[in-house]
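Q: My collaborator sent me two sequences in one message, no labels, and asked for predicted structures for both. Can we handle them in order? The first one she listed is below.
A: Yes, handling them in the order given. First sequence, followed by its structure tokens:
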Amino acid sequence: MAAFSSFPRDVLIIGSGVGGLSTAIILAKLGFDVTVLEKNSQPGGLMRSYTRDGIECAVGVHYLGSLDQGQILRKFFDYLGVTASIPVSRMGHDGIIDRYLFDISSGNHPATFDLPEGLDEFEEALKQTFPKEQEIIVKIVDPIRKAAEQLHGLDLLYAEQNDFSLLDQSQPLGEILDDLGCSPGLRSILAIPSCWIGVPLQDCPAYYHNMALASYVSSSYRLQGSGSDMADALAGRLQELGGKIVTGAEISKILVSSRVVTGLQLKSGESLQASTVIGAVHPKVVLQMLPQGAVKPSYRQRISGLQDTHGIFSVHARVDGNNHPEIPYNIFKVDTDSDGNVPDLRYYQIRKSEKEGVNLLSILSSGKDELWAPWTNTKSGRRGHDYSEAKEKHARQLIGEAEGLFGSFKGLKMLDAYTPLTMRDWVNSPGGSAYGVLRSSSQMLATAMLNRTSVKGLHLAGQSVMAPGIIGTILGSFSTVKSILGADEFREVIRL
């Protein structure tokens, strides 16, 4: 399709993660001349896994939701043209997509809860676990069904305005559960999806929680290959469409004249001209690239004051595959308080690796920023022996805790561990935030319409625009394209 005559053809996109590449593909399909600039040596951002001891270690893609025919992510992948290039395997074939393990010392929680695929099955599992709260459960699940209908029907994307005007569930879910008289045990199970997106339950808008849960329970998949395969599929598709990717291209400045974007300046000194620039990195990073006076002080204050989600600490280790076979579902060890809130959890996967007879144990936990504070002003690869020792000590603690669940690991060899500082330096995420801007009820107004800036021709994309995760990020990409084209033009040319 030829580019629209009323729109400038040249588009520069900063960052090649899910947001940058998906936005680029959409625009390339519409005939725009798109160049994606990536500061690292390979495109993909947090999609891209890395290799240790010949084994691929995942970073940002541990599962995918809503890939069945007619569901939102399948519609996105089909439109982008990458469905066949991203092989996946379905979870839930044994009836479980997640297993939650609770500390029952307080007596307020079940020992375990198995999250099934399907909203009907989820509702029934809750009712069986909490037989005295049947009416409360119905009132909780009904809005989740509504969220699923809006999600798969793309209501948000095709709304008249490019914002969350459809959201009638902005009240924090924690408050809703309080009003319903929800028990601590039921509350603890419902708190976990808010942890997926890094927002405390008491400040998590019901819609974000319900959208995250609905998207995952609708259908759940794992990548058959690695995150790098997914990154390569998206990058390859963009190049098929004539788009360009330039790696090793770190941006020093967004060029602006009279609050109109004119291009980018690289740290190499090279300047690139374009009348449309899209920052598919954190909004605060984009703000740092803008010259003084390019935006109104009120905009600068709003963006710089945004609160971000927490970072994560991750451990990857190889284990003997015969003694520790692949587990076809995810496992969460959940910390709860007496009220059913979840201050922390640990996420576990045991999956087959590229090596025969060797499986990969992956553990994700909260970032514990206080542990890494002494190295805040250092760069990756230059933090010294003390930092490596601190990482290994914390990793060993997490592995020891995991052995309390899985038994002593045979043939264990730790491959790698990374901290929020690693994330910060790798993908320019302020503070090492794992999920970008905090999508909390308390900053709903501050986070509204983040894909729009006060500089003409400058737009934002990425997980901070609408919601984190693969679905939330790609939804944000379409929303950014909508802001460029206008709602009427968008509805006419984008058919999903």
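Q: And the one she listed second?
A: Here it is, processed independently of the first:
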Amino acid sequence: MGTVLIVDDEASILEILHETLSLEGFGCEKAADGNIALSLLKTRLFELMITDIVMPGLGGLELTEQAKKLNPSMPVIVMTGYIDEYTYDKAIESGASDFIKKPFTAAELLMRIKHVRQQEKLRVMSITDELTGLLNRRGFFNLAEQQLKIARRNDQAIFMVYADIDNMKDINTRLGHQEGDIALIDIAQLLRTTFRDSDIIARIGGDEFVVMTIGSDENSLESISSRLQKNVDTLNSSNLRKHKLSLSFGISSFSTEGSDSLDTLLTQADKLMLEQKVLKRKS
């Protein structure tokens, strides 16, 4: 069971929900208002949030909007006794996964939780590459578009890495597609090692990978390129595979002063990757 954040300004409801979910094996954290909940969400990851709508200060729908920006994959169930004022449609528009009317039974709440967890599992499957476990093309574009908006708003630098395995066709031809699959899995793990958990890593084509990484003191065009190539060399020198791997990659950057789109960033990085591939063939 995961950890659930319960948000309600009524202490009695908080205690009842905490006891009910704890008995079912959930880890629970309580917040008496939306602002407290938002502070917790900024420092911790929760599997699920259950929040009242009407609260002093930051209301449940506004909290849901902020929570989904911080953790887009977290399901949210909103609850209210003001059914005439707040509808299912309003809840969904805010980013909630489900809506429950007060008063409700423990059985109904547990069914709602089961439903949203199943829906989240299906959503994750739809955006995940089955072979490597990375995001697929659809998942990448969904998350990257959100991250680009956040970067613009917070004046952050973004780097886009477009990588392609140079010798994939040769591996498949000489050693078979099973060995080719192993190569793809190895590259996926290499990218996980090279980049941070907060970076967006995806396999968007047969042997094509992209990474969207947020700029920091450790991130620059030179440092990313050097780190990535060093890890490729380390992989080739340490593994016992029948093949050696070679990556061509290009890195583009997003400027908050410009109006670069996600497609523009990808196109620029792809072009740089192809230029590197051509230079390798000539050398």
